[in-house]
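Anyone? Bumping this.
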Amino acid sequence: MIEDGLDPVIHSAARLRVMVTLATLKDGDSLSFTRLQNLMAFTSGNLITHLRKLEAARYVAMNKSGSGVNGVTDVSLTRTGREALDRYVAALRKLLDSAGISPPP
Amino acid sequence: MDVNDATGMSPVDAAALVQQARNRARHELTINRPVIFVSWALCYLLGYGAVWLSVRGERPYEGPAGWALALLVLLAIAALAVTAQVTDRATRGVEGLSTVQRRIYWLSLAAGWLGVIVMEGALRHQGASQGMIGVFTAASPLLVAGVVLVAVTAAWLNWYLFALGVWLIGVAGFSSFAGPEGVWGIDALAVGLPFLVMGGLVMIRDRR
């Protein structure tokens, strides 16, 4: 955590978008790397860099099935990741509240 | 704001980004249920309605006209195609529990409807009257859909769909009393209109 209470692993525009997108999935679901890349409009290298940072923090899990051109990587938010995102959003609301700014619904 | 920028994001920017990303993800990854409800509403209103028009006043009851059955089948195929397309658009690349639940739901429906076709054949084989077959053909697919819907909502935890399933079971049972002519008309309205209302309710809920 940093001083303002916002988790630095999540507090990056790219990683925040990835986390919020994965949080939309139901518990027990994962999203293919390709679909996530399409939704984010990131390059493959850019996305994998951010995913590795999130994976190192145990916020996302990456599961590769198959090999070669048939290989598919699925990405999902872990329970730790979901809790971290909830804490991040709560901290964000608190900061906005204390500054007298109404957060988006 | 550069969305790939890893630094210098204010809390206001972050809050806006969370909202933006959430809206976009929901738009892209959520099945557009209102479209599905409306396509099935049209199938029942127009398809069952057409069959009702073709059998209305038949003495003795001889069964639906070919054109009406063909229209019903075409509308059912169209509704299935819309459902498949809308579902595929939202769930492409998604794997896991919800995918398995959805497959079980569709397999259960397919098995139930196949059973209905086989039973209809058995009724004809046993020499059942056209009237009995008419009631069975109209009401039994609804009964299957209702029972499957009620059963799967145990996993989906969706009270809207549970209520719809119970309604379908009730309509299938009670509309049968209307006989081979009335059952088509009652089912057309009693299923088509609630599906339209359901589509509207879900659309309003999703926009909130």
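Late reply, but here is one note on the structure posted above: Helices of chain B lie at 11-29, 33-55, 66-91, 97-125, 130-156, 159-175, 179-207.
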